[in-house]
Amino acid sequence: MKIGIRIYIIIGLLACSLFSTAQSDKDVAKVQAILHQQAKDWSAGDIDAFMASYWQSEQLQFIGSEGVTYGWQSTLDGYKRRYPDRAAMGQLRFEVLRVDKRSRKVITLIGKFHLKREIGDLDGIFLLVWKKIKGKWLIVADQTCA
Description:
By secondary structure, the chain is an alpha+beta fold. The protein is built from 4 helices and 6 strands.
């Protein structure tokens, strides 16, 4: 009798583990799909659509060569100032280096970016912190170094 109960417990734990792994893979795939869409939006010259993946909050953090920026609007304004036209924006490509699911609601993603531009290409590396807020994965912190 005790062996039968142990087997049920083991099967139950394995099922929970497999479900958790599948959910984790689904969340990571969702974040990567959003990142892919961001590259398409950027390359189309649509900074506003690119920014849809960012948390629309004054608590959003962006760290770049100019220091720390707080807030969604300030981050958008900074992008528009640094990339005023299509020539400056170029064609964006991301390379994902590492993705870690930190918890059910937090994912970190490290990657490289490449901007192909007639005015000169630009390369860099970034760390994004994604948080699931109201069922949607959003970037809550972005550290980008060019």
